[in-house]
Amino acid sequence: MGFMEDAKKTAEAVGEKISDDWDKTTDRLSDKADEMKADAEVRKAEAKADKAEAQRDSVHKRNEFREELRD
């Protein structure tokens, strides 16, 4: 009987270890997915900012050119 009880406890311990490892792995994957989403948002915002800066520079150049034509 002692051998069967030890085997059962060992199997339960292995099952718990596998379950814990699975939970940790899914948490890590979830964290990585959140990181990737945040990085994508930053890249999107940077691209939008670059576009806005280019548009601003274009307006400044256009206004400078118009001012020169007025003189």
UniProtKB/TrEMBL annotation:
It comes from the Bacteria. Residues 1-71 are annotated as: Disordered. This is CsbD family protein. It comes from Microbacterium aurantiacum.
